[in-house]
Amino acid sequence: MIESRYLKDNIENIQKLMQIPALRHFEVRSLSRLLRLSKIREYDDGEFIIRDGDEDTWLYFLLGGSVRIEKNGHEISTIHKMGEIFGEMRLIDKRARSADVVAAGTAVCLAVDTSAKNHMAGEEGSDAQMDFLLLLYKIFAEYLSARLRLANEELVKAKEETETLKKGPDVKK
C-alpha cells in the first residue's frame, strides 16, 4: 500500500471531494473537516484493504479501480463505481470487520480515520459536528439500503435455483 499524509483542506482537494457522488451534499466546512481526517491509499492487485475480524476505524470511498468483498473465500460483491463506500458496517455496529476487502487490480481509495472524529468536537461547536455526523450516517443508510436490496434479489434467485434443483432433472424449463 502506498499512503499519503493526512490531506489538507484546500479548495483543490475540496473540489475533488465534491466529485464523489456521496459527498456532493456536504457543506464546504464538512468537506474540510473530512479532508483533515483522510488519506489517499493505493493498493496493488490482491492486496488486502480490510481483513475479516479486524477492528480498525477506517472508512473507505473508492476513487479508482475496483475491490472484491469476500467471506470465507467466497466473493460476495465487487465494488467498482467511483465514490462507493465500504468499511462502514464496523463504524455503525462497533463489531469486528465482517469480511475481507481485496484490491481487484490497482485500487485507489480515500481512507477516512473515523477514530479522529472525536478530535473535531471543539472545532466549530457541537451543532456543526452533529450535522457532519448525521450527514455521514445518512450516506451509510443509503448505501446499506441499496446493498440490502441487492442481497434480497440474490437470495430470491438462490432460493429459486435451489427449488429447481430439488425438483430434479425431469422438470422442463
TrEMBL record:
Cyclic nucleotide-binding domain residues: 22-113
Coiled-coil region(s): 141-168
GO MF annotation list: DNA-binding transcription factor activity
Keywords: Coiled coil
Top-level taxon of the source organism: Bacteria
Protein's UniProt keywords contain Transferase: no
SUPFAM superfamilies assigned: cAMP-binding domain-like
Keyword Coiled coil among record annotations: yes
One Gene Ontology cellular component annotation held by this UniProt entry: cytosol
TM region positions: none
Pfam families listed in its UniProt record: cNMP_binding
InterPro entries: cNMP-bd_dom (IPR000595), cNMP-bd_dom_sf (IPR018490), Env_Response_Regulators (IPR050397), RmlC-like_jellyroll (IPR014710)
Protein name: Cyclic nucleotide-binding domain-containing protein
Organism listed in the record: Desulfobotulus alkaliphilus
